[in-house]
Amino acid sequence: MAEGWTLPALSQGLQVVLALAGLGLLVVTFGVWAVWAERRRLRQPARGARDEPVVPEPPAADASADALQQSLASLERFDQLQGDLRQRLSRAGQALEAERGSVVSAVQLMKQAAAEMRLHDTVYELYEGLRLLPRKSGEAQQADRDWHRQARIEPGRVLVLDESTRQTVVDFSAAGRALRISGRSYTLTRASFDELTLFDGPAQAVLTVRLTLQPDRLKVVEAVVSSYRPGPWVAVLVEARTLMDERREQLLLSARYRDVEKMRADFGLDVELPGWRPAR
User: Fold this and answer.
1) In whole numbers, what is the pLDDT of the chain averaged over residues?
2) Which of 5, 64, 209, 259 could form a disulfide with 120 if both were Cys (CB 3.0 to 4.6 A apart)?
3) Can you tell me whether residue 16 is helix, strand or coil?
4) pLDDT digit string, tens, across residues 176-198
5) For 133-142, what is the mean pLDDT?
6) How far apart are CA 194 and CA 270, in angstroms?
7) Contact, 228 vs 209, CB < 8 A?
8) CA dist 253 to 150, 165, 261, 273, 278, Å?
């Protein structure tokens, strides 16, 4: 039977083989394409996920609770610190108010003491007398110098800084202690006053007073002590005040004595009556 195959029969077998081979190749190709398509499909969601915005995950419940607890603890600590601060400020305010009361009381006592010692009168009389001394005649100046020496006052330099406001600096010595008075007049709409500052030495201010004067400037109407620093100078001015008052009273008594002497002479009373006589 093998001897009976022909060329056409072989050609037909070869055709079958070739057809089967082509079919296998087609199956393989389809399988490769199917695998490639599946992989491409699987890669598309991942690529799309990369294109979408990243949404942060919500914090865990435990982290939120911890943050809230910390905030509440911080708020409680803040309230505690604020309470402590208010208490400290309250105590400090009470202590300051008590100290202020003590200082005000001490200041009032010092002002009262200065007023009773008539320091403002003494400073003004010395300032005004020494300020006007250079304007007087030679004889009047000598009389004033003699009068000041009886109170242990030695006149010094008089420096006029501004004539319109009577701004003047007066140097002098009292009982050998160098002092200075700086004064100035102020004219305001409703009031006028003089401000005098006493210096114990060239630079240390120890007393400042504001004085309201009579129009003729002969008497102090009102005095306000702005600053007062007691020291050895107070005793010096107190002594000067006493000597000035004694000298003034002697002048007044001398005037009255002259009146008595005139009446005696007018009526021929030659008998000398016992009583006060002016100092020789």
Assistant:
1) 83
2) 209
3) helix
4) 999 999 999 999 888 899 999 99
5) 91
6) 52
7) no
8) 17, 37, 12, 16, 7
